[in-house]
Amino acid sequence: MNLDRRNFFKFAAAIGASTLLAKEGLDSIEMKQYAVIDGSLLADLHTHPSRNASIEDQLDTFSKGINGITSLLGIERYVKYEDLVLLKEVEEIDKGLFARVVYKGGLGYIINTQEVEALKPSLHILALGCRKRIYDHQDPRDIVEDIHLQNGVAILNHPFVVPSGDKFRYRLLNRYEESKMRELLDMVNQVEIYNGQCIDIFFGIQQGVLGRINMQKANKKAQKLVEGTRFKGSAASDTHGELAQVRTSGILIPNNYVSLEGIKDCIINNRFERYEGKISVPSFFLGHFGYKFGR
Ligand SMILES: [Zn+2]
Fold first, then answer.
1. 73 C-alpha vs ligand 1 centroid, how far in Å?
2. Which of 68, 187, 231, 250 sees the fewest Cβ atoms within 10 Å?
3. Distance from Cα 5 to the centre of ligand 1, integer Å
4. For residue 259, what is the domain's CATH number?
5. What's the number of domains the chain is made of?
6. In this predicted model, what pLDDT tens digit does every residue of 157-199 receive, in sequence order?
7. 35 located within any domain
8. pLDDT for residue 39
9. Containing domain of residue 94, as a range?
């Protein structure tokens, strides 16, 4: 653990402050993981859990529900599907894409998903069911085309949020980017309209700096975006680091669709219910900055 004292105290103070705010009842500090809701398995298709968690904790998490293990090109600190399938508790059903995880009496599934970052605008597209890695920084339309050529399914992740390249990390789309994003709706199979990381951290204030970091508005815009369209809109935790965030949100898959082709069918044909859960504020901070302290 590379402990830079000054940064560590800043980090601890941020968690402390956010927890305090949360205790005021403005943002819940409760966070709950689900495997089954109303008799259906919860599928959280978009997650980036840290590989620093113990193998036992990883197996415990992935042997429940359906868990998308989402790769980001060039980022090594997250769990990889390819590593999990080497474990004896994991048995592949569709090579490279979908596997069952049996551990301590639990039965869950992992599904290999990719998050691909486009260029102009830097939209994030989730590829499900693709064996070949799709490269970042291509025209978003080319990315979706590649997904479809591989017989995969394309979900437009958090449609109103793109990386900002500054210390705030994310920002809303500008007007030009929004028009490009809307064009892409003709091509994708689904839109993620609830992203678990788009939360209000400080009282939901929308002015200045706080307006930049309070991102619940991005989900609200996404929900409006799909009104009257062919999309039902999906939900995912977009887990960063913390295993405890996995399956706090997701989509419910009917029991007779629990297979790679079945899940793809559900996404394409709106055959799911959305579950919109919460990431707690302290967990959000741990997830986004904890890796700097070995978490
Ligand atoms: Zn993501």
1. 11
2. 187
3. 29
4. 3.20.20.140
5. 1
6. 999 999 888 877 888 999 999 999 999 999 999 999 999 998 8
7. yes
8. 95
9. 31-279
